[in-house]
């Protein structure tokens, strides 16, 4: 497998390391700012022989990177968040170019197992209205977005499976929370790679599901596995689609 890594920050460099360990070839690294990237932007030279573009750049340039990869007719793995409100446009680009794209708010295999556990648990909790539901996430002080894309995904899973919760509240609450609201809070500080917690709380006990990342390596391994998976596919896929097939 020959890959191009788009976004050559800490995550991009870790993806390169993992890809090489899994016997992939890194053809190019694209980053307009990093001095050690092989290319500043997409070009014929940067895309020569590339099978898959793995994109972990800043949210502001995510749509441009997707468009460029589609223009060069390369398979795409995208772990950048902040663009999903333009999903219809992305699906159109993917279908018109005839490529395959897989995206996730978090490519960590452990996190995707965590998503499945939350889905199953919330289906059970849906039958017992004595339990209220809440969640929170914590990340390092350099993270640019809040809430995390993973928290957004978790909130959607909960809303999809618990009838009494219909909307997520992410901001600070200076009032009593309404019964139909799901509060999912964010904290930033230190060097935390990523912690996500869901609590099912009643008057008599608390059930807690928690995922704590020890390093970014899990994200990189998941992204490279996703690149291997998307190689022979066409269309728009999520990490959930991949996990469903792998399981």
Can you tell me about this structure?
The protein has 247 residues and is α/β, with parallel strands linked by helices. α1 packs across α7 (217-230) and α5 (109-125) packs parallel to α6 (149-161). The strands form two sheets. A six-stranded parallel beta sheet has the order 2-1-3-4-5-11, sandwiched between helices. The two termini are 23 Å apart. It is built from eight helices and eleven strands.
The quaternary state of the protein chains shown equals single chain
Task: Kindly give the count of domains.
Answer: 2
CATH superfamily annotation of the largest domain: NAD(P)-binding Rossmann-like Domain
Q: What is the rounded distance between the termini?
A: 23 Å
Strand content: 15-25%
Low-confidence stretches: none
CATH topology of the largest domain: Rossmann fold
The overall pLDDT, averaged over residues, is 94
Portion of residues within helices: 25-40%
For the largest sheet, list the strands in their spatial order.
2-1-3-4-5-11
Please tally the helical runs, counting DSSP H or I stretches of 4 or more residues: 8
Largest sheet: number of strands, sense, barrel closure: 6 strands, parallel
The H-and-E topology, N to C, reads as: EHEHEHEHEHEHEEEEHEH
Can you tell me the CATH architecture of the largest domain? 3-Layer(aba) Sandwich
Alpha carbon gyration radius: 19 Å
- Look at the structure and give the CATH class of the largest domain: Alpha Beta
Shape: elongated
